[in-house]
Design a protein that fits this description.
The chain is mainly α. It has a domain at 19-47 and 63-134: AhpD-like, CATH 1.20.1290. Helices cover 58% and strands 0% of the residues. It has helices spanning 25-42, 44-56, 64-77, 81-93, 98-112, 117-129, 142-147, 157-160. Helix 3 (64-77) packs antiparallel against helix 4 (81-93) and helix 3 (64-77) runs parallel beside helix 5. The radius of gyration is 21 Å and the shape is globular.
Length: 166
Amino acid sequence: MSSPTGPQADVTRHPREPLTETPSPEAFRKARADGNERLRASGSLFESFFSLDEAAYAPGALPTSVKELLGLVVSVMKDCEECVYYHLERCDEEQVARDQVIEALQIALVGGGSVTIPLLRRAVSYMEKSRISPRRKRERSSSESENARPSAATPSVCASLKVART
């Protein structure tokens, strides 16, 4: 009798089980384009959704680069591996600095918890495979600097107000 664990184990895969190996950027792009064309040919509702998606990510009060970072975080939180790869590529096209992408992934980790770690590993691997380039750190504008979170050396609001713990 064989052991239920180990390389010989008969494993039933869940239909939504994520990819175990990060695809090449070229394979991902081709599969995505082919799939989208099949959807577009299947009915007008799909095309309407694609139009809605395009409108949502158009520049507005938030620049497209920020919207792509938000899309990346949502994609991690929703455990959508293909969406993560797509938003990583869009962040690269929008010239989002690598350190900004990493910070967005860290926010996704905080929001989603340790269950997001496997997808975050694949996201970083995809970034390396697609050679998403590290860009200079973006300089903060004066308004961003004024609104930035306080550093560890800056007292918190609670400490400043001398709020006692009860």
